[in-house]
Amino acid sequence: MAAETTDPMPRPLRASVCLSALRHNLGIARSHAPRARIMAVIKANGYGHGMLRVAKALEAADGFAVLNIAEAIALREAGFTQEILLLEGFFSADELPLLARHGLSTVIHAQWQLDIMLQTPGSAPVQAWLKINSGMNRLGFQPDEAPAALQSLQQIGAQVTLMTHFARADESDGIAEQLTLFNSVTHGLNLPRSLSNSAAVLSYPEAHGDWVRPGIMLYGASPTSGRSASELGLKPVMTLSSELIAVRAIQAGEAVGYGASFRAPGAMRIGTVACGYADGYPRHAPSGTPVLVDGQRSRIIGRVSMDMLTVDLSAVPGAKIGSAVTLWGDGLTVDEVASAAGTISYELLCAVAARVPLLEAI
Ligand SMILES: *Cc1c(COP(=O)(O)O)cnc(C)c1O
What we know:
Blueprint: E1 14-18, H1 19-32, E2 37-41, H2 43-47, H3 51-57, E3 63-66, H4 69-77, E4 83-86, H5 95-102, E5 105-108, H6 111-119, E6 127-131, H7 146-155, E7 159-163, H8 176-186, E8 193-194, H9 198-203, E9 211-212, E10 238-250, E11 255-256, E12 262-263, E13 268-273, E14 290-293, E15 296-301, E16 309-312, E17 324-328, H10 334-340, H11 345-351, E18 358-361
Parallel strand pairs: 1-18, 2-3, 2-9, 3-4, 4-5, 5-6, 6-7, 7-8
Antiparallel strand pairs: 1-10, 10-13, 10-17, 11-12, 13-16, 14-15, 14-17, 15-16
Helix pairs in contact: 4-5, 10-11
The structure holds pyridoxal-5'-phosphate.
Pyridoxal-5'-phosphate binds at residues 41, 43, 87, 165, 197-199, 213-216, 223.
């Protein structure tokens, strides 16, 4: 068989990741919390943007927060020397020697982790972020358990940072109770503190402490429904785009897609886009969810299928096969699409499937 000499035309769906927007958004985080160090949160493959790519663009950050040790080691092996934090800490004793060898920081959120550390002498990681449950009730020592946990960590020579996580930093008056509790538990302790996710970075300077932990804002999405990304000065990082691969005219009463959930109210032109739920586009996005076709605002109609979705071309009379379609990103915020689909930007960004090529844009 002859070797293939030309690349086939690829499916037009792609996610382009704008590196300068990442750097810009890091600058916005810094401008809000100028005295804090920044632990850039790049878990979930950098919120779907590619972890190492994001870390490289954000190399001015003071640290990186990830979920598991494989990600942390990949960052070290790629040459990153910043503090690297495991947000849920370690899961078993085998990880302790690796934490020590790679100089990784670990959250300690429960007694079982502390017990493992105490029973594994010599391999204790030097940097421990002691997580205190101030009201989210997910991870963390109870306020009355925290002093003993701190004492144990200090006895084995750990450098401790005190941390907590807010449940409602995206709401007005959303952190008062948790902040008061955290401050009372940590009162008088001369140790670094870390409390703020993106929403708190943007809204609650009194909670910035020594390290802030922005995630979603770095990717250019808004953490609060009350203020849009552009009002916050954030630039979208990911643009998910594709093309029309079919165009047709349908008559009043004709249906579109599985379940015939959309019926044309009158004669109209519709287009089929190469993007479906197997690419990470939410299947539960209803008819009416916004989309751009040739830069014009339109809407999806009918059910999202595995590999395709359909759009209304009434507002885009010039649209034809090959017309550019933006699912979200430049010109259409992921927040708006998420809200139409009854979810949040975080879920859409993280769900972009591995089969979608991620391309870098400057
Ligand atoms: C994911 C996460 C963050 C970042 O939250 P955003 O809302 O994306 O800014 C901060 N802290 C912890 C503990 C997290 O798990």
